[in-house]
Design goal:
2 domains, SH3 type barrels, elongated, 7-stranded mixed beta sheet, about 35% strand, 14 strands, about 230 residues, mainly beta
Length: about 230
């Protein structure tokens, strides 16, 4: 089922033995568009420390109680490798994080999630700190914050379309499916959905996302439907 990410910010996250905090942000892979982490704000429980929650651990979204249920304990989360606020996530941290929880590295092999957020069974090569030291120390340049991308300009093949206001995400695979874009004056400022499959590139220096669509493609599409047309 698809959900808008804006509707997930602030939702409570419950471990198997109690509340751990609320969703503050999401980190996604800008190549696969998969959500790699939920960023949880723990409040006074862990002195307002932020922790990363992998979709591997998500058991379900409880729509009735408006919470995300994870199959972890509070102690597991408390003892998990800490991240520093406002710092890039390094591959070294991710290696320690996945080793701590006993999960396979998503960046090795076929790192995909199964239905319900549970990982498929596959193996990952062992981490060799001597061979891969430089690679694993660097920040993961493909991990991006959804909050940071809001406001980016969408550049079609023949001009600007508008700016990103939200995303839609599949809560089974935790893959971002569409960009929610507030169109410019040429489309009466309405919102349109652009599939992430249409993204050609992202310019972080210019805060722009280039897509393989024309303004005509967008104009022919109802605001209630996904833009499927693409040009290669």
């Amino acid at each position: 089922m698809s959900k808008k990410i804006n509707e997930l910010y602030g939702k409570k996250i419950n471990a198997s033995d109690g509340d751990i905090g609320t969703i503050e942000d999401f980190y996604f892979d800008d190549q696969s568009w998969k959500i790699r982490y939920l960023v949880a704000e723990t409040g006074t429980w862990l002195d307002e420390r932020q922790v990363l929650i992998s979709p591997y651990s998500i058991e379900r979204l409880d729509l009735e109680d408006d919470v995300v249920i994870v199959n972890l304990t509070r102690l597991q989360i408390e003892d998990s490798p800490p991240i520093e606020r406002h710092r890039p996530v390094s591959r070294q941290f991710e290696t320690e994080y996945y080793t701590y929880y006993g999960w396979p590295y998503y960046w090795s092999g076929d790192g995909i999630l199964g239905l319900g957020g549970y990982p498929m069974t596959y193996s990952s090569p062992a981490y060799d700190p001597e061979v891969d030291a430089e690679k694993h120390m660097r920040e993961d340049i493909h991990l991006r914050s959804t909050l940071d991308i809001v406001g980016y300009e969408i550049e079609a093949s023949d001009g600007s379309i508008g700016r990103v206001t939200d995303f839609t995400v599949d809560d089974n695979t935790w893959t971002i499916k569409e960009l929610v874009v507030e169109a410019g004056h040429w489309y009466s400022g309405k919102e349109v959905l652009i599939p992430t499959a249409s993204v050609n590139s992202i310019s972080y220096d210019e805060s722009k996302i280039h897509v393989s669509l024309t303004t005509a493609d967008i104009g022919q599409t109802s605001v209630d439907h996904v833009v499927h047309t693409s040009h290669h």
